[in-house]
């Protein structure tokens, strides 16, 4: 119930931003389209070895408030994924703050089973919506110069958290993330380093360690992003 209420608030905020996107108070409306060799998320290959195409659009207010939608051709259980995001970010010299909320949405998917009853073949289907699962998070973050940190907290189970520390120095990036879970066997740490040889093209190597790590071998990802301003 809480997740659905938060989702309604998020959708309402996105709607207000879309209506007001042409007003002078909005400093920028940005969008991008990306292609990658796989959907890498917190050290996991969500799409397996399959490539993914994604896109986003963000409305940014002069006050620091922002709202956006991100969608990907690949998601959990073979479905596509759409994320809603609202937040507030502000810079104070070299320091920055960022607080907000994510809602991760997945389409309904159907699981069917065939059984033989007497001389008849009966098919029964169960429709489940992954969007009813614990797929939403609050977050609070801060930055200083090229380094940023963010803590994401599951809205339904606050013991499930993800802490990430990221840095970017010229063409090189580094990331460390820690997945904390009420079930200790699900906890793990992921690391990655990235290199951008030319604008918008990124090579990434990711490794994960811990009982909950799904990937035992390093993951290699190449991605390209086309950013553009929406007038």
Rg over C-alpha atoms, rounded to the nearest angstrom: 20 Å
Q: What is the second-level CATH architecture?
A: Beta Barrel
Strand order of the largest sheet: 1-4-5-6-7-10-11-12-13-14-15-16
Average pLDDT reading? 84
Name of the level-1 CATH class? Mainly Beta
CATH superfamily: monomeric porin ompg
Query: Beta-sheet strand percentage?
Result: over 45%
Distance between the termini: 37 Å
Shape: globular
Structural class: mainly beta
Count of strand segments: 16
Number of helices: 1
- As for the number of domains, it is 1
* Helical content band: under 10%
Taken in chain order, the helices and strands follow as HEEEEEEEEEEEEEEEE
**Largest sheet entry:** 12 strands, antiparallel, barrel
Q: Poorly predicted ranges (pLDDT <50, ≥5 residues)?
A: 1-5, 14-24
Q: Which fold name corresponds to the CATH topology? A: Porin
How would you portray this structure in words?
By secondary structure, this protein is mostly beta strands. The protein is built from one helix and 16 strands. It has one domain: monomeric porin ompg (Porin, Beta Barrel). The chain is 8% helix and 61% strand. The strands form three sheets. It has a twelve-stranded antiparallel barrel with strand order 1-4-5-6-7-10-11-12-13-14-15-16.
